[in-house]
Amino acid sequence: MKAHLKALAASAALLAMGCALAAPGDVGQVQKQPINVTAIGMFLVFVLFTLGITWWAAKRTTSAAHFYTAGGGITGFQNGLAIAGDYMSAATLLGLSSLVFMRGYDGFVYTISFFIGWPVILFLLAERMRNLGRFTFADIASYRLQQGSIRTFAAFSSLTVVCFYLIVQMVGAGQLIKLLFGLDYPVAVAVVGVLMVVYVTFGGMIATTWVQIIKAVLLLTGGVLMLGLALSQFGFNIETLATKAVAAHKDGEAIMRPGSMLADPITATSLSLGLVFGTAGLPHIMMRFFTVPNAKEARKSVFVASGFIGLFFLIVCLLGLAAIVIVGQDPKFFEGGVIGGKIIGGNNMPVMHLANAVGGNLFLGFLSAVAFATILAVVAGLALAGASSIAHDIYARVLRQGKATEAEEMRVSKFASIGLGVVAVVLGIMFEKQNVAFLVGLTFGIAASANFPVLILSLYWKGLTTRGALLGGIAGLVSAVMFVVLSKAVWVVVLGNEKPIFPYEHPALFSMPLAFFFTWLFSVTDSSARAKQDKAGFHDQSVRAETGIGAAQASAH
């Protein structure tokens, strides 16, 4: 068993090193719980506080640069906390701790797979994206390629990712509200949609950034406090905690070994590829590199974010182990008081029951409010990314070909934010009964298949042409969506067919290579005048990417 404990410790050390990513998992179908007045009260305090920040930010949002990127005036440390806030979702807190609670080592490994994308961003992308970009992913992808076609593709691809990610968050919000506050699902979705529009429309990136920072601090503080209270029952000794968890779990020492979750290597590999490379292709994360004044601060923000997210995931995993002992052996947390039976509130409740067990109802209310607040912050960032694609890329650059004024562009952004809010609420209600796990895989799979190949090749491959980027990106986007639609998660579960046409639920293992292959093929066979111009622009792009000469400057706000 010591060998397994060492393996567990090594995994924990890897987490602490901080190559991190979080994403919302499936919070599952949950039953409505009694109204939690304490949690609702704390949530209202948070909402009023963040609305005050939005009012403060609105007075400072006077230009498109302020609206999209906070004027580039966010420090690396602040941006790192905001990025951490983008990743540390409520569903992560509930879902990953529950995985460790139920499956032990498998939950740890699953968590680590969410982390590995950050070294890619830190070492390959952060500085170059800051030096080349201004507002959106399309600014980078189209730097030396044909503006109109690449911007249109990038905007469409970004909006696809944003919409699917919004569905995940809205469905998660509705389920969490039923679970934590005892309110109805449509009410929860509508509240999230209205607040999202208010944050983005009035406060732009300044408000969104500070809401993310506050949420990240609250979530980390709550997690550290809960872990301290839990570890106090084990003499602050992690080995003692692990030993007691093994003794308490129904699977015994098996929870320290790989189990059924890793039985299918193709699914595991495909999921991991999507999570790792999809991280670098998420539009709301790429936008964050333009909020800092220079490449040095961009690199610092990734380093800071990795550290905080790594700490958070380490905490989440240890909370799952503590829940095995503290929650798993207390009959009051099981329906009918039967230990080992159904957990009250659903399978994602162990960490919330742990909060109640170690900190009482007040601490449970605090954690519930923070958990829901995390969704508000994430959807605000997503809405801003979607609005910027519509207003900056499609309207200002493609339709108006750079002739739109800043006032016009910002006005379009705000209307786009309202439209995205309506779409998010409608889709959230439509998908209420759906399992959101496949949507997470689809979101990251699309980002990894459509955005990442175009992004990385535009930065590092001289031979990339407009035709290659466009057709390769479309191949990745369409194949990722098709593979998921034809998989069991949609073809059988949603559409009611007997057997899936595509045998795997995660597309990245197949759609990513397709995107790279077609990007390469259509580039090397492109002998047009446009292709020569695309390749000739690589040298100037490299100089700016590596030195920052000519990069968009920060402005005071």
Distance between the termini: 57 Å
Radius of gyration: 23 Å
Say which CATH homologous superfamily is assigned.
Sodium/glucose cotransporter
Number of domains: 1
State the order of secondary-structure elements, H for helix, E for strand. HHHHHHHHHHHHHHHHHHHHHH
Instruction: Name the structural class.
Output: mainly alpha
How much helix, percentage-wise, in residues? over 70%
Give the overall average pLDDT: 82
CATH class: Mainly Alpha
Largest β-sheet summary: none
Number of strands: 0
**Would you identify the regions where 5 or more consecutive residues have pLDDT less than 50?**
1-28
Molecular shape? globular
CATH topology: Sodium/glucose cotransporter
CATH architecture: Up-down Bundle
- The percentage of residues in β strands lies in under 5%
Signal peptide: 1-22
Pfam families: SSF (PF00474)
Transmembrane segments: 38-58, 79-101, 107-126, 153-173, 185-210, 217-236, 266-290, 302-327, 362-391, 412-431, 437-461, 468-494, 506-525
Membrane topology: Multi-pass membrane protein
